[in-house]
Amino acid sequence: MTTPQATPPAQTTQPTQTTQPTQPTGRVNQKRRTHAAIVAAASELMLTGGEVTMPEVAKAALVSEATAYRYFPDLASLLSEAMADTLPAPGEALAAVADSADPVVRVAAVAEHLARLVLGRQGAVRAMIAATIVRPGSASARPGLRFGLIDEALRPYAESAGGGKKVKETLTQLKRDLSVVMGAEALFSLMDLNGLAPEEAVASIVRTATTLTRAMLVTG
């Protein structure tokens, strides 16, 4: 006699479980708010033109200095992020001379723009320079705004002069020279070592930058 086989139980389909995206926890949100508060405090202090230090930033952000250092290992890294949110685009510096293709006129515009921008943030800029002098490896934290400004100032000339080897060599050398005379270091040297008033220092930088440009591109 054949024993009847047991019928296997019916397979049940398990409902597919949808993984919901993890929502930021309160602690993560708090960290973001603290980070934003520290950067905002640094930006506000920077725009006063006065000295910027980590203790002062922490005080303005309503956090302890130790907390500020947990978010930023040093003042240079904090200032780098704060500056990135306040620096204008190169085109803004040339707005008044946008219709001019004269390299001398355009270099004069960006040289003055940059010098005045540095004056308005000189406490933070001095702190950034000091930090990168003692730690050259951190120099990349500096925004290097001058290079974009110089490129934009000379762009019409570069486009109209063609791509010959001589033109490229001349522009490369001019850009290097301008990066020296248009830097914050030059401005502070004129003020600190030569005793010039801020307006005199700005005028000296503009005069030097335009003299270089005229000598290399107009009379060179």
Secondary structure category: mainly alpha
N-to-C SSE series? HHHHHHHHHHH
Count of distinct structural domains? 2
Largest sheet: none
Give an overview in words.
The protein is mostly helical. It folds into two domains: 28-84, Orthogonal Bundle (Arc Repressor Mutant, subunit A), CATH 1.10.10; 90-218. It is built from eleven helices and no strands. The protein starts with 25 loop residues before the first helix and ends with a helix. The mean pLDDT is 85.
Give short descriptive properties of this protein:
220 residues, mainly alpha, Arc Repressor Mutant, subunit A, 0% strand
Indicate the topology.
Layout: H1 26-46, H2 54-61, H3 65-71, H4 75-84, H5 90-93, H6 103-120, H7 122-134, H8 145-161, H9 165-181, H10 184-192, H11 198-218
Helix pairs in contact: 1-2, 1-4, 2-3, 4-7, 6-8, 6-11, 8-9, 9-11, 10-11
Give a short synopsis of this structure.
Helices cover 66% and strands 0% of the residues.
